[in-house]
Amino acid sequence: MDFSDLAALDIDEKLQKKLAKLNVRNPLGLAFHLPRQYQDKTKITQINALQVGTEALVEGNIIKSEILYGRQRMLVCYLQDATGKMLLRFFHFNNQQYGYMQAGRKIRCFGEIRYYKNQFEISHPEYKILPNNQEPTKLEKNLTPVYPLVSGVTQYSLRALIKKALQYLDDKDAFVELLPADILQKFNFPTLKEAVHYVHYPDENADKGLLFAMRHIMQSRLILEELVAQRLSMRYTRIQKKLLKAPKFQASTQLANQFLQNLKFELTGAQKRVVSELTTDLRKDTAMLRLLQGDVGSGKTVVAAIIMLQAVAAGYQTTLMAPTEILAEQHYQNFVNWFKPLDIKVVCLTGSLRTKVKRSVIEDIKLGRAQIILGTHAIFQKQVEFKNLGLIVVDEQHRFGVGQRHALQLKGRHNENVCPHQLFMTATPIPRSLAMTAYADLDLSVIDELPPNRTPIQTVAVANGRREKVIRRIKEVCKQGRQVYWVCTLITESEVLNCEAAEDTAKKLQDELPELRIGILHGKMYAALKEEIMQEFKEHKLDVLVATTVIEVGVDIPNASIMIIENSERLGLSQLHQLRGRVGRGDLKSYCVLLYQEPLSQIAQQRLGIICNTTDGFKISEQDLLIRGPGEVLGIKQSGMMEFKIAALPRDSKFLDQAKEITEHITKSQPNLILPLVQRWVGNHKSYANV
């Protein structure tokens, strides 16, 4: 990788590699690493004037510090100014910090204000110990920009690097105008150079309300240009897509009809419509690239099975990738039961298969004996070769990196211009504004109807202080012959710690509910053991299943009627909705209990309120998009899809029509601007144009 451009700013290779994770590879990349929000550190707020849910700069004297021991060690500092007292909490601290936080020290701190047990508090504030003399310490003159970060790069260091890059670029005349002059004039926009400098360094007289709302004209000018570049990129991808050829499946529906006759239920109208759309695609000799979205429990797997049968009927292999071994095994059991009467060979390839079994499965795939291949990331292994792969189905597609999907497509290439058809499935409903942008290069099918006889799930948020009441409710429910999920989540990303939390919870529940059969499931278990435990739960040999979020997708146990989610305030809306979808899959009245730790932040209150008030996946996804942004909702940071530098949806939906109009203008009148615009805002996406 070439880091020579950043070397011009005296940035060492180690830091350059970290910046590359932010897609920053040269000084211009630093200039276009734009702030998503701002902090107001220009004024001090007195304690009696603090407002819950806002960020504030507070200054006062420490009157007491102590370390508290409970479920987690905590440093607590009591702060006082002339108007009142408040609390500072630190969950991650060292002895040196504790030494600084002694009574009598003067401190200035910044963070989100919460209210708990009749007093204001800030958890993990930014802070600065001040000299105890009477001279006031200077405040910031301007709003402080907040940038997306990566591990090993701080806000402070990034601000310094961006300042250095802007000074370097000013001498190079690097901010070339790419929007047509008549467009700039029509919207009364500033120059690119003015806009970039301003969003990094708003002046002290700036309208703070507009900047915080991302509605300042300097921001709008950059947002619109980015949306134009993104549309141009998607248009290019669509053109590339039309050049890709794929196997043309014959019009035989005999296998599919036999399968439908054997099903014990009737397809919904939405399922029938989507099957028809997919069948039409598969009968063309251009590659299908389609996104199938449907809410939790809408029946996407059955639709996938029907079109996979069409691939088999045409003489091709087909594969379905799942993000977890539990889901892959569940798909395998369903497909074997469905397709055994049709004499179709189904295999499952996962990383934890024994060597001898794995070798046999890989040989069946290579020789074409395996017609339907289900599996996880193990399918990407170098030794896995397909004889004639005609259709790829990716379940919960945002869980797979774009590079992984690209690798699978390459495995199935028949020659340079012929590749398998591809269907991506997601249970995360995608708002229209996002579908128009991030997935504009894919055709879209929607299953917007749930199977009949599904009862709505009632959702309640319960503070941890009422945990005993929840446990009593579990006892009552299990006595009635129903089953319960208890999901453990931790703020840490360590799978080991999450598994330890689940084991600890299972032990405590067993002590409190000795008459119940309690099992445990987490990602560190061997596949055979996970499968055994899920089978026991399915056969009602267990009353309660304590698990990590490994059960988030796909698991289907109709008798499970209560879902309890610990630390629910730490999860996003879409993940909460997915977990909730593990219950309510039969005709039993079902409940979801969201246990949370007080005090709740304003965003956490907002999230839990939304999930309690609706079960509509599209409404939930729209709100999740507003709160967290497209990167988190779609798993973009993991999936490799583009992430906006300054635009955000649905916030900036009002610009979409203007972006479309400008895109048409540039395409027809100034096509020479297309590539520079795409490279500035999107980068080089040619490798993944068809994934």
Any overview of this molecule?
The chain has 691 residues and is an alpha/beta fold. It folds into four domains: 85 residues, no CATH class; 88 residues, Nucleic acid-binding proteins (OB fold (Dihydrolipoamide Acetyltransferase, E2P)); 253 residues, Rossmann fold (3-Layer(aba) Sandwich), CATH 3.40.50; 141 residues, P-loop containing nucleotide triphosphate hydrolases (Rossmann fold, 3-Layer(aba) Sandwich). It is 39% helix and 18% strand. The chain has 26 helices and 22 strands. The strands form four sheets. It has a seven-stranded mixed β-sheet, with no helix packed on it. Strands 12-13-11-14-15-10-16 form a seven-stranded parallel β-sheet, sandwiched between helices. The longest helix is centred in the first third of the chain and has 27 residues. The radius of gyration is 28 Å and the shape is globular.
**Main sheet: strand order:** 6-7-4-3-2-5-8
Overall, the morphology is globular
Number of helices: 26
Query: How would a crystallographer describe the biggest sheet?
Result: 7 strands, mixed
| CATH fold-level assignment of the largest domain | Rossmann fold
Mean pLDDT: 85
Head-to-tail CA distance between termini: 23 Å
Share of helix, binned:
25-40%
- Gyration radius, in Å: 28 Å
